[in-house]
Design brief:
87 residues
């Protein structure tokens, strides 16, 4: 594994340690971003952190390469396509 590359973030299998590091980095970055939003717009700090981390989760859920909503839409068969002939 190369340094600076997070396999758990890119959809490849990873060790539990690298997954934990990646999750910790995402959590820290989301918390700092939430505190920045809180300071900038004079909002409650806790609520801002929760909203930012929820937005990160929703974005990750939609864009996940294997199990995300976007991947499911891309793999969905065309409903207008004719069904294959059976035996």
């Amino acid at each position: 594994m190369t340094h600076g590359n997070c396999p758990s973030c890119s959809g490849r299998s990873a060790s539990p340690q690298s997954s934990a590091w990646c999750a910790s980095l995402i959590g820290c970055a989301g918390s700092v971003a939430g505190l920045y939003v809180s300071y900038t717009y004079d909002l409650a700090a806790g609520g801002s952190v929760v909203v930012v981390l929820t937005a990160l989760f929703a974005l990750t859920w939609c864009l996940a390469p294997r199990h995300g909503l976007l991947a499911k839409l891309v793999r969905r068969p065309d409903p207008a396509a004719p069904l294959p002939a059976g035996p």
